[in-house]
Amino acid sequence: MRNGIFPYNQVSNYIFILIAMVSCSKEENVVAINTTPLIKLNAVSATRVLQFKDSLVVVIDYKDGDGDIGETDPDRKSIEVKDNRLSKADYYFIKPLSPPGSSIKTEGSISINLKSPFLLGTADEEITTFEIRIKDREGNWSNSVKTPEIVIYR
């Protein structure tokens, strides 16, 4: 150091050391675990189906912070699928996606086979969408996803 002025080389070294010290703080990054399932629409097998003959397969991707999606009791339904032409939804069973009693983050895909959609009226075709959501063992409902328009025809 001459005349109270640091040479450029030393200043850059001190700045580097200061930045390194600040970035090495002892605070840990705490990531909140989302225990409510999150889903997104991945795929729909068709947007046009022949009533009573074609099936419609909807694939959703899921993430759950505590892995409690699915039931061991087949009478407890975890997937809600609502045909938007109807006032009530249908419910489907899904087996546990992680060992019951565990609390591990899970993610993956679920395929839902909607067998033989049919026309409700007398027209030759109808257009509908399906809204889907899932419920975990704690009773938390996921967000809802909606399919593109599906044409059902004779």
The CATH architecture is Sandwich
Indicate how many domains the architecture comprises: 1
Radius of gyration: 26 Å
Mean pLDDT over all positions: 86
* Alpha-beta content class: mainly beta
The CATH class assignment is Mainly Beta
CATH topology: Immunoglobulin-like
Order of helices and strands: HEEEEEEEEEE
What is the percent of helical residues?
Answer: 10-25%
Q: Mind telling me the CATH superfamily name?
A: Immunoglobulins
Total helical segments: 1
Largest sheet: 4 strands, antiparallel
Shape: elongated
Work out the number of β strands.
10
The rounded distance between the terminal residues' Cα atoms is 90 Å
- Sequence of strands across the biggest β-sheet: 5-4-8-9
What does this structure look like?
With 154 residues, this protein is mainly beta. It has one domain: Immunoglobulin-like (Sandwich), CATH 2.60.40. The strands form 3 sheets. It has a 4-stranded antiparallel β-sheet, with no helix packed on it. Strands 1-3-6 form a 3-stranded antiparallel β-sheet, with no helix packed on it. A 3-stranded mixed β-sheet has the order 2-10-7, with no helix packed on it. β4 and β5 form a beta hairpin. The radius of gyration is 26 Å and the shape is elongated. About 8% of the residues have low confidence.
